[in-house]
Amino acid sequence: MNTYTAGDITLEQVREYVWEIPQEGDMGTPARVFASEELLEQIADDKTLEQLKNTTHLPGVQKYALCMPDGHQGYGFPVGGVAGIDAENGCISPGAVGYDINCGVRMMRTNLTYDDLRGNEEELVDALFANIPSGLGGGGVVEGDIDAVNDVLDRGMAWALDEGYATEADLAHCEDEGVRQESDPSAVSQKAKDRGKNQLGSLGSGNHFLEVQRVTDVFREDVAEAYGLSEDQIVVLIHCGSRGLGHQVCNDYLRKIEKTHSGLLSKLPDKELAAAPAGSQLAEEYYQAMGAAINFAWVNRQLIMHRTRQVFERVFGQSWEAMEMELLYDVAHNIAKKETHDVNGEEKELFVHRKGATRAFPAGHPEVPGAYLDVGQPIIIPGSMGAGSYVLCGGEESMNLSFGSTAHGAGRVMSRTQAKKDYWGGDVQDELEQEQIYVKAQSGATVAEEAPGVYKDVDEVVKVSDALGIGDKVVRTYPVCNIKG
Predict the structure, then answer these.
(1) How far is CA 409 from CA 14, 231, 381, 390, in A?
(2) Is residue 178 a known part of a binding site?
């Protein structure tokens, strides 16, 4: 059997692309990493494996704690981590969801081709940057009051529909139709609401972006057709989350859990994994508050998409309906949800924590939107702004291997601090423009932090997902214009 040793952790190769940290000591389960040897070396270069091993100490973890092929070190729980935890006798962990609750991606297709757009790249990137709020702090498409924020937290995309920012089709093509029914605005602090009220419809900063892309490769004609995708087509990818509101929700509940459930915390190897026991008041309140923040994030991305449609109308002189600017799908990748999964032959309700991981339900799963039921749920995996992105479909092995999950992106290999030492934003922009990729950001530092060289090879990440059958390649896209905070 092949083994791989990183520090005091040894992994055994179970099969191609599957590596296991055997259960020992106080570990509740083994841990598994889905990776090629090349990716495993990068994953082992920081504290990802240690954090993954620590995750197995959470009460009620089932089968395996998992790390997807884009995994890297996070806050307590690794980014790219997945854990299915018993919803009756286990726990729920805000740290295993992350600070940016429902950070996620949506893709909007169009009937434009790359030839339709060529020559308009600079006008388009300037118009998008001028009209879509980005960067730190406030400012959004909608300047809401607390009543509006409460409505968004309660009703999610249904609010956007009633206010004229969304269509019925937009809701039908969103995970959970854009509404978490278990949400409760009263579980969200006033401080969180105050942070969110002026940020509805804004990208924020860091790795969040809006990118206009062209489809360059089609791998599955049948699924691509079902998704309405074809070669040379222009699509728009939006990546952002719940802004300051979600960050505050996570922070609030981590502090509450540390005070109320210190006994459980003392048994965990890392306090950043702070968790509330299933059935406890804090577990219920966090689940409701998280649901509210999830709703906020879906509305945030919807408002950005609404503004994007308006920008395209001005630049191309057509209505967005004429350009068929329709939502392909919106999927969360920082979330914990009650789902039913097979655990050793028994159907169990679990809190499935996905932190930097994407739901990947296969064809026929009842939670896949009706339009995609025969081919599987769309999965959107962004690469860096100098590389391609991918659309996958939920794979047949995902429910068996990964609690219906796969990777969420390329995954970092370099810290933001190191990136700013190694790259100069202006140089990165110039190099990308030589490749006909037009980037506009609030600062050169942001561009440096997100330079293509700070990310893993997205092709390698997707290769592993496709080979394991947890998310199958459908199309590849390539950047044309990118705006970021």
Answers:
(1) 24, 22, 5, 9
(2) no
Give the model confidence (pLDDT) of 143-181 as tens digits: 878 999 999 999 999 999 999 999 999 999 999 999 999
Q: Which residues contact 363 (CB under 8 A, 6 or more apart)?
A: 372, 373, 374, 375, 376, 393, 394, 396
Q: Is residue 408 among the annotated active site residues?
A: yes
Contact predicate 30/70, CB 8 Å: no
pTM here is: 0.97
Domains detected in the chain: 3-86+100-413+455-484 (3.90.1860.10)
- Rounded-to-integer distance, Cα 470 and Cα 359, Å: 10
Contact yes or no for 296/290 (Cβ under 8 A): no
- Residue pair 202/139 in contact (Cβ under 8 Å)? The answer is yes
Active-site residue, selected from the candidate residues 72, 306, 353, 408: 408
CA distance 195 to 138: 8
- Residue 137 marked in a binding site: no
Q: Is 479 annotated as a binding residue?
A: no
Q: Tokens 């789902």 belong to which residue?
A: 339
Q: Kindly report the number of other CB atoms within 10 A of residue 422's CB atom.
A: 12
Is there a contact between 379 and 331 (Cβ–Cβ < 8 Å)?
yes
Question: What is the tens place of the pLDDT at every residue in 286-344?
Answer: 999 999 999 999 999 999 999 999 999 999 999 999 999 999 999 999 999 999 999 99
Residue 333 annotated as part of some ligand binding site: yes
Which secondary-structure segment (H or E) carries 301?
helix 281-316
